[in-house]
Sequence to fold (232 residues):
Amino acid sequence: MPAQQKKLIFCTAGVLSFACALGTAAAIGTQLWVRGTILCTTGALLVNATGPELHKFIGEIQYGLFSGQRVRQCGLGGRPFQFSFFPDLLKIIPASIHVSVILFCTVLIVFALVGAGFFMFNAFGSPYETLHGPVGLYLWSFIACSCGCLIMILFSSEVKIHHLSEKIANFKEGTFTFKTHREQFASSFWTILVCSLVHFINALLIRFAGFEFPFSKSKDSGTITGAVDLMY
Fold:
């Protein structure tokens, strides 16, 4: 492939990696990871609410990795409540999983920036034969993509398996009991998915630029070596 086309491919991959780093950093600070509604089951059972009356007992909840807000509806209007995971909710959430999600988000940002730097270096500089060359480009892309996948798996298990929304909704609630009525992942969560796909696409761009996968050996070299061995 001509050198100009390789430079264009590496520049594109570098810009995408840098954009992913910025997108992940922005996603960490938002409350747009999960959105949903919560049902005040205690209030609904007290008045035997059904149909349109049930909407008076359905509140809202949204949260991110560090904070969030909920609006409780128990028949007397919405009551907003702000909360933070650190240190308020550490006793009721799976803290090890939550901290792991934040840690992998940080690692994703770091390796996305590292990958962007090496892509630009390969585009405008003279790449080394070790980690600055195609081996390093594959490595940084693979690590960043793996971190993105781990973030989605861990956070999904925290929300769905450990019922994170219900634990947050029932935080400091002695009389009323809340149940998740509807929940869905919001834009910040899908940003991590897009970043993972981008890093996977970057690995394909490296291959498209003409670099073989670094951990595979050429069959021709093995054939030549075998022929030389037979000669002796």
Observations:
- The chain has a mean pLDDT of 83.
- The helical segments are 3-28, 41-47, 95-124, 134-161, 164-169, 187-208, 219-231.
